[in-house]
Amino acid sequence: MSGVEKTSNExxxxxxxxxxxxxxxxxxxxxxxxxxxxxxxxxSDRKEWADLEPVPQDEGPNPVVKIAYSKKFSDVYDYFRxxxxxxxxxxxAFALTADAIDLNAANYTVxxxxxxxxxxxxxxxxxxxxxxxxxxxxxPKNYQVWHHRRMVxxxxxxxxxxxxxxxxxxxxxxKNYHAWQHRQWVIQEYKLWDNELEFVESLLExxxxxxxxxxxxxxxxxxxxxxxxxxxxxxxIQYCLQQxxxxxxxxxxxxxxxxxxxxxxxxxxxxxxxxxxxLKETHCSPYLLAxxxxxxxxxxxxxxxxxxxxxxxxxxxxxEICELLAQEKDTIRKEYWQFLGRSLQSRHGRSSSEEPPGAxxxxxxxxxxxxxx
Amino acid sequence: xxxxEKQLEEFEQIDFLKDRHVRFFQRTLQVLPxxxxxxxxxxxxxxxxxxxxxxxxxxxxxxxxxLIIEWIYSQQVLPTDDKSNLGRCGFRGSSHIGIPYSTxxxxxxxxxxxxxxxxxxxGLCSLLILGDDLxxxxxxxxxxxxxxxxxxxxxxxxxxxxxxxDIRFIYCAACICFMLDDWSGMNIQKAIEYIRGSxxxxxxxxxxxxxxxxxxxTYCAIASLCLMGRLEEALSPRELDRIRRWCIMRxxxxxxxxxxxxxxxxxxxxxxxTLELLGVFRYTNFEKNRNFILSTxxxxxxxxxxxxxxxxxxxxxYFGLCxxxxxxxxxxxxxxxxxxxxxxxxxxxxxxxxxxxxSCGQQH
Lengths: 373, 364
Fold this sequence. Notes:
The structure holds 2 protein chains of 2 kinds.
Chain A: H1 12-29, E1 66-68, H2 71-86, H3 91-103, H4 108-120, H5 125-138, H6 143-156, H7 162-172, H8 177-190, H9 196-206, H10 211-223, H11 230-246, H12 251-261, H13 272-282, H14 286-302, H15 308-329, H16 334-348
Chain B: H1 2-13, H2 18-30, E1 31-33, H3 43-56, H4 65-73, E2 76-77, E3 90-91, H5 117-129, H6 139-147, H7 167-180, H8 188-197, H9 215-228, H10 231-234, H11 237-248, H12 267-277, H13 286-295, H14 314-326, H15 343-358
Antiparallel strand pairs in B: 2-3
Helix pairs in contact in B: 2-3, 3-5, 3-14, 5-7, 6-7, 7-9, 9-12, 12-14
EC number (chain B): 2.5.1.59
Enzyme class (chain B): transferase
Keywords (chain B): Magnesium, Metal-binding, Prenyltransferase, Repeat, Transferase, Zinc
């Protein structure tokens, strides 16, 4: 198939791996080669292309990371290069771009040329929407296809299919970054905010740990009601705590809760600390404890007028949390929690003989490199 | 007896197979099968992964540097005689457009030929790694090509014809300006605004404003600011502490890129290097990180994959190595965390800068 001489000194395991991966690739691209080999005509054999001189890729004397293309692949792209060179604007060029995309949908030059042709030939953009819909379904993690869709939507100035389409893509992979990005663009550009919070909630019903959905929640609310309305904040706090009770070990919910409150001071939200301390008994997690630590730290930073005794108690509680995290609840970050404890101590501790011994930071390895044991 | 066998097996499980990785990168630099077609327009970045990977392994001696330098220069889009294409200069990912092979100017006018910001960035890095002095780089062209890519909001396109625009290309632009020692290629202030705008409510960075925070984009944000020398100007101490927290919470065994996502080898670098730049990488768990990275090592063909029992690829092979380098794996060279080349290559760059600056009185 490849027509390029294989390096004959590949080791057996590499040969095996290549065969394995080629077989996998065949499986996923099988349909593309569904046409009987005898029916497929190379461009170089098509008489309506006879006027065009194909342009091979000129790799020079010592190509690096050369890709071994089959004759079918090179044939399509040799003619693509020929079209590009003369900047031909024709139906046959437009048709060829579909073949080129089929072989490599990541070639941004092909997509750009196709867009030039779409406009030069006044092609039916509705048909193009159908076309790009199908391609994205097959290759939803490709940058070029989403960019192309965005361009067509802009030209049509018609976002009406978008939310449903993106929802369909998200139903296959609820965290597809490209899909979410496109969704945010559509919503912001065409002011389609109305039903988005509902959509977010349905996704969180499916998977309360979907961090993309939590992010979208913040996106929608910050662009609509905003977070300055205390009623909104209270509602969101309740929503978070509710989700946390259902699934305590969920960083996303805790990040969201902290995110919406931290700029006004975690310790200034009345009753919150108490609720979190309650949850600590039944729904504990490293994220809850980290949140508590942050509350205590905020109290220390922002309550200069508080009595020294109370400040030391707060400090003491914060340091307890650090120890709990380091020794038991989040041991992978032991060094970090201990570092945070030391920092907090040095910023807010009393300098008195009552300081626990060994409170000074032990010297760190000079290069910051630990030994992997 | 069983105990010894078990111990031996464990050791074999987690040992680092340097020679396999050297051969993996050697093969990458030669020929890839057709199923890698989607990499055609980004081949120069794959060259970078292989070269920098070999450099980290201390094994650049296995390749012919001069031949590769020639090929890289053949990807440079040079100004035409009348300089009408300056805004399109830089480096291509490959010869896929069909320009005849040439390593010197003047540029050939072609309606669709232009550089790609990530290829200019990885092209320059690759030249440095190979010990080249960049004397054949058309700096005026590269910088003009770069300026043509920046948008009003401070982000960059990848190509002058237009593309998606986001924080990845700000990082590429910052690297290019840093390497060429010339920040006229970008409006730093606007870039900083875009970066700040990408800071999420949870203190990670998204690809742009409002978007989900992500380890890769967080690296782009922080590394860019470090290269610009503006980290502490752009972000307050409190913001930096929160960013440290977001990053350090990414460690699960190895690292993942977003909360509640699976771990993936490459984030050992994206997040690890960010933590290093922020001064707190030392507080991560090196052993668990190492064990995860090595669990994705392909013991037969070399390289690393994103997950265990998956196929290796050049990107994960490279970042797996960088992840190990960060934790001080023996026999791996250290990597400059912001520019993502070895310290040796970085020192070569610094020497070039000294040379350029001391001959500043002369015409460039």
